[in-house]
């Protein structure tokens, strides 16, 4: 089960660190760093059910508004 | 060149003469139990398998040559084991380049390497690379040694009429048309399957907007017999490249080109040679052997059985080339189909047994399409986010073990386990390991009459095998109602062979791989998949499982 209660001892520090991580990066570099971070955390969490819950939570309230145009497939 | 090609048959140049069949002069369409369309690897394998069961086939091909170009080059362990059963595995492996190691590079650097067959005690390697024309040539030579196969070149199916008890075929030849009546028709006629089209059927799925260039080059090169895969290399930026060794000093190089590439221009030597030179370096000397630009789709038909017509191989399903799942899964279709069709054609099993061909091979096709689509998504990311995850995975793979397992340059073809097959008898007792009902039987080194041998070679008789782990007198098998069933007894190393069908588990590997204890009994199908298993031999249970495995349960 995904824990959505506070689980961080110093939440402000962690939030600051997340923002600081991207301060001097281009959007493309940022995207890469975020992707690495997600992969590292996903592996650390290990529980696929929890990860799927987190993915669903992250998508909640987002209305799909299109794709970027890179290498799109056709049906 | 090292001269090793001297004296070899140039299979690509062979032309097979059309010969008139007496059927063409018959007043009425002649009836045949099985007609197979397409003398590629799938059609040939099916014809050989049926002939080995004593079933006569007519094999029609619209052409008079073997595969043009190397095409499918990776033949997987399970396919080699099938070729062993068909009597030509040794030739394939002898001619092919054996490899087990793959290396992955990201930009300039090696990221990691993997061994596809980390476990010893298997007769066949994870893969061999062998040009498709050799595979077809060796299968063809085997087929020609079997008088039950009537191979007709330049016989094109121009039309067909499905009937309740067969199919009426209109065939065109260089000297006119004729008609044939088939009890059963196997459509192994390739991705564009004219039979599928004539029946108004479709293979549906996803087409990928990307183009790839295959360049087969002949050269003297220091590359080892490994599969090398580059993501975004400096010599071909932003795209992927695959390098693979084939026999006769030929290397397969596969360049991703992107969707905007011009398929005609990219085929020209003046475009291809600089790409190859960039990979090999300015000093390298090579010549182009075969060039092709392709796109691909992941497709399958909704059903592979349509009454008396059975689709197999590319006619039934298509995958991306990443993972070597095209020809391998086609040969595995043929093997799944052949024993069932053999029993049905001989009147030993009900027609409904062929519905399990559909169930099992549709499941296998879905597994192949899933794996192949996942590889394609990794190799050709569809958007910025998926590219970021791909690059992140490759960067992490250098020093994080978990990320190496996520790198996907093709999950190489493994045989399907038919977990939910209606032919399986579910386990009633606890077993460990992968040899569950529906799984393909694993090989192991054994001893037969004191001589080293391989386990799978003991299953090549083409019928069902009752595998009994036990010492002393073998139990009598139950009555089978004409179904072929043989007992194979396994005794521990040093156990006194008591009869002909006794093998010694020389290294204890068979018992380990099958989680066997004294008394354990496996029922193996003719295609070497597990039908059922028990901790003790009980004739009534074996009889029931055999009925179930032949569509009578």
What would the principal axes of the Cα set say about the shape of chain B?
Answer: globular
Question: What ranges of chain B have pLDDT less than 50 throughout 5 or more consecutive residues?
Answer: 1-6
Q: Work out the radius of gyration of chain A.
A: 15 Å
Helix content of chain B: 25-40%
Poorly predicted regions of chain A are 71-75
Q: What is the end-to-end distance of chain A?
A: 35 Å
What proportion of the residues of chain A is helical, as a percent range? 55-70%
Mean pLDDT rating of chain B = 93
Average pLDDT of chain A? 91
Do you know the CATH topology of the largest domain in chain B?
Answer: FAD/NAD(P)-binding domain
* Number of distinct beta strands of chain A: 0
- Count of β-strands of chain B: 28
Strand content of chain B: 25-35%
Characterize the quaternary organization of these chains: heterodimer
Order of helices and strands of chain A: HHH
Radius of gyration of chain B: 24 Å
Instruction: Decide which structural class fits the backbone of chain B.
Output: alpha+beta
Backbone structural class of chain A: mainly alpha
| Total number of helices of chain B | 12
Question: Largest sheet of chain B, if any?
Answer: 8 strands, mixed
Organism (chain A): uncultured Craurococcus sp
Protein name (chain A): DUF2783 domain-containing protein
Pfam family, one (chain A): DUF2783
């Amino acid at each position: 089960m995904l824990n959505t209660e506070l689980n961080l001892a110093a939440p402000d520090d962690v939030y600051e660190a997340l923002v600081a991580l991207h301060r001097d990066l281009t959007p493309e570099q940022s995207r890469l760093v975020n992707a690495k971070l997600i992969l590292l955390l996903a592996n650390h969490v290990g529980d696929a059910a929890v990860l799927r819950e987190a993915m669903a939570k992250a998508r909640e309230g987002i209305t799909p508004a299109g794709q970027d145009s890179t290498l799109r497939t056709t049906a | 060149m090292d001269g090793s090609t001297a004296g070899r048959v140039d299979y690509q140049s062979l032309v097979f003469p059309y010969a008139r069949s007496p059927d063409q002069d018959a007043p009425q369409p002649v009836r045949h139990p099985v007609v197979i369309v397409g003398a590629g690897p799938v059609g040939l394998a099916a014809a050989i398998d049926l002939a080995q069961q004593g079933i006569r086939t007519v094999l029609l091909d619209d052409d008079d040559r073997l595969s043009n170009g190397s095409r499918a080059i990776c033949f997987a362990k399970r396919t080699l084991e099938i070729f062993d059963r068909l009597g030509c595995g040794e030739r394939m492996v002898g001619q092919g380049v054996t490899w087990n190691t793959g290396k992955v590079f990201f930009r300039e650097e090696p990221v990691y390497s993997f061994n596809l067959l980390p476990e010893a005690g298997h007769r066949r390697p994870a893969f061999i690379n062998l040009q498709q024309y050799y595979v077809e040539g060796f299968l063809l030579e085997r087929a020609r040694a079997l008088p039950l196969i009537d191979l007709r070149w330049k016989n094109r199916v121009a039309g067909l009429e499905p009937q309740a008890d067969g199919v009426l075929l209109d065939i065109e030849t260089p000297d006119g048309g004729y008609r044939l009546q088939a009890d059963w028709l196997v459509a192994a006629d390739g991705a564009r399957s004219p039979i599928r089209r004539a029946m108004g059927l479709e293979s549906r799925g996803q087409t990928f907007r990307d183009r790839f260039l295959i360049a087969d080059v002949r050269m003297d090169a220091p590359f080892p017999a490994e599969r090398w895969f580059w993501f975004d290399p400096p010599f071909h930026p932003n795209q992927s490249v695959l390098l693979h060794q084939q026999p006769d000093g030929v290397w397969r190089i596969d360049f991703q080109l992107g969707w905007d590439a011009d398929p005609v221009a990219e085929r020209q030597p003046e475009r291809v040679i600089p790409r190859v030179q960039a990979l090999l370096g300015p000093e390298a000397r090579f010549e182009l052997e075969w060039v092709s630009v392709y796109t691909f789709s992941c497709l399958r038909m909704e059903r592979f059985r349509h009454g008396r017509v059975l689709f197999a191989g590319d006619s039934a399903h298509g995958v991306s080339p990443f993972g070597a799942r095209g020809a391998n899964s086609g040969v595995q279709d043929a093997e799944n189909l052949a024993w069932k069709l053999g029993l049905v054609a001989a009147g030993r099993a009900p027609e409904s047994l062929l519905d399990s061909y559909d169930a099992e091979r549709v499941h296998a096709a879905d597994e192949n399409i899933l794996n192949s689509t996942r590889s394609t998504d990794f190799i050709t990311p569809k958007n910025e986010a998926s590219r970021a995850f791909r690059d992140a995975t490759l960067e992490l793979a250098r020093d994080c073990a978990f990320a190496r397992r996520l790198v996907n340059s093709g999950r190489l073809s493994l045989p399907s386990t038919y977990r939910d097959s209606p032919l399986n008898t579910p386990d009633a007792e606890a077993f460990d390991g992968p040899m569950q009902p529906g799984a393909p039987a694993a090989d192991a080194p054994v001893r037969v009459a004191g001589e080293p041998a391989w386990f799978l070679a003991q299953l090549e008789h083409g019928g069902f095998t009752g595998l009994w782990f036990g010492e002393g007198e073998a139990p009598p098998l139950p009555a089978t109602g004409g179904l072929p069933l043989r007992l194979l007894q396994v005794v521990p190393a040093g156990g006194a062979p008591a009869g002909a069908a006794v093998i010694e588990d020389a290294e204890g590997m068979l018992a380990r791989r099958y989680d066997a204890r004294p008394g354990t009994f496996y029922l193996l199908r003719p295609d070497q998949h597990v039908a059922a298993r028990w901790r003790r031999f009980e004739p009534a249970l074996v009889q029931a499982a055999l009925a179930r495995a032949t569509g009578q349960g």
